[in-house]
Specification:
Layout: E1 3-11, H1 15-33, E2 36-41, H2 46-52, H3 58-66, E3 69-74, H4 89-99, E4 104-110, H5 123-126, E5 130-136, E6 146-151, E7 154-159, H6 165-180, E8 185-190, H7 196-209, E9 216-221, H8 222-231, E10 238-241, H9 243-254, E11 264-268, E12 274-278, H10 295-308, H11 312-327, H12 345-355
Parallel strand pairs: 1-2, 1-3, 3-12, 5-10, 8-9, 8-10
Antiparallel strand pairs: 4-5, 4-11, 6-7, 11-12
Helix pairs in contact: 1-10, 1-12, 6-7, 8-9, 10-11, 11-12
The chain binds nicotinamide-adenine-dinucleotide, 3-isopropylmalic acid (IPM) and manganese (II) ion.
Domain Isopropylmalate dehydrogenase-like: 5-352
Subcellular location: Cytoplasm
Pathway: Amino-acid biosynthesis; L-leucine biosynthesis; L-leucine from 3-methyl-2-oxobutanoate: step 3/4
């Protein structure tokens, strides 16, 4: 049987809860398609700090490098928030993205028709919304020099935002390529009226655009984009932007779909290898209660099948199963209009697995 190796790093909070449901989907895929998905698990994040004294143990990284793809839950929590930088879960997350060369983070925000009522926005505004945020993932202010120092006896904190032209060009090209496979519209988001990195960004986009005359390009300043996303979400197709803007805009875009619990992501480098994780975090406020929405993680598996394995049919089977379960009216609390009828994490996972059909 065709075999793929998947490294699983469930992490903290609701990470293990949602990953458990995604693993059920892996097993069902084996059954339906006669493929073999070898899984291996490793410690990552806060739990790795507790058990191994580091958020990203060497053997976990080695396990990921051996794999064809990585499935990640989420990391972080109040227990580790006041730790020094090298002992914070989030440092492990940035570390794994960098170490695996995953510079491109793809975050689709698709509004399911039956969930239009679940959003805080008016249903008619959401009609037809289907966009992808392409977020640069290994540069910018996340990875520039950071330090504290006293200047004339006053405490200073410094974060540096750095991009080189090659880092900008590779992500921008990828976004143009993705736009080409869709509605051929690209919005490049920057703060070119203020930031030097954004001026390099825009210059690069303009230069690369010459190779993509078939793609309609708009430049949008990030503050305006945050507003336009709520005003005219359906008009966006592909949005490409730098690391921190993409982080913020993708959480905003999540709310178009009804909940951050719906948003999947793929992190890619040059080859087919990828890391797949929900856009949301470890949700300490609901962890341990069995009520988290597993759909973001399950849809991340569909992305894995399509983008890393080229298994389009298997990816479609998952997406169709999610759609049919939602169409049948099943809801976790985050997307339920009537919260008293909400079902839990594992019930939602089981329903989706039961709905998976070739
Ligand atoms: P969060 O995404 O964890 O939670 C924000 C809100 O959304 C919370 O009210 C939470 O209950 C809700 N939510 C999130 N996922 C949900 C789901 N699947 N189903 C239902 N509700 C859901 O963001 P936060 O609270 O700002 O961060 C919590 C911790 O997670 C922090 O330590 C942060 O650093 C970390 N974090 C990790 C990742 C990651 O691992 N990729 C991403 C974001 C945040
Ligand atoms: C995300 C998260 C991370 C980020 C944090 C936890 C480091 O918010 O994956 O969106 O900012 O990239
Ligand atoms: Mn984020």
């Amino acid at each position: 049987a065709e075999t793929k190796r998947i490294a699983i790093i469930a992490g903290d909070g609701i990470g293990p809860e949602v990953v458990a449901e995604a693993v059920k989907v892996l097993r069902k895929t084996e059954e339906l398609f006669g493929v073999k998905l070898e899984t291996e698990s490793g410690l990552f994040g806060g739990i790795a700090i507790d058990e191994r004294g580091t958020p990203l143990p060497e053997d976990t990284l080695e396990m990921c490098k051996r794999a064809d793809a990585v499935l990640l839950g989420a990391v972080g929590g109040p227990k580790w928030d006041n730790n020094p930088k090298e002992l914070r879960p989030e440092t492990g997350l940035l570390g794994i993205r960098k170490a695996l060369g995953l510079f491109s983070n793809i975050r689709p925000a698709v509004v399911f028709d039956c969930l239009k009522e679940a959003s805080t926005l008016k249903p008619e505004v959401l009609e037809g919304t289907d966009l992808i945020v392409v977020r640069e993932l290994t540069g910018g202010i996340y990875f520039g020099d950071k330090y504290r120092e006293q200047r004339n006896g006053v405490e200073h904190a410094v974060d540096t935002c750095v991009y080189n032209v090659n880092e900008v060009e590779r992500i921008v090209r990828q976004a143009f390529e993705i736009a080409r496979t869709r509605r051929k519209k690209l919005a490049s988001v920057d703060k070119a009226n203020v930031l030097e990195t954004s001026r390099l960004w825009r210059e690069t986009v303009v230069r690369v655009a010459a190779d993509y005359p078939d793609v309609e390009l708009e430049h949008v300043l990030v503050d305006n984009c945050a507003m336009q996303l709520l005003r005219r979400p359906a008009s966006f197709d592909v949005i490409v932007t730098e690391n921190m803007f993409g982080d913020i805009l993708s959480d905003e875009a999540a709310m178009l779909t009804g909940s951050i619990g719906m948003l999947s992501s793929a992190s890619l480098g040059e080859g087919s290898f990828g890391l797949y994780e929900p856009v949301h975090g470890s949700a300490p406020d609901i962890a341990g209660q069995g009520i988290a929405n597993p759909i973001a993680t399950i849809l991340s598996v569909a992305l894995m099948f399509k983008l890393s394995f080229g298994w389009h049919e298997a990816g479609d089977v998952i997406e169709n199963a999610v759609k049919s379960v939602l169409d049948a009216g099943h809801r976790t609390a985050d997307i339920a209009v009537d919260k008293s009828k909400a079902i839990g994490t594992s019930a939602m996972g089981d329903l989706i697995v039961a709905a998976m059909k070739r």
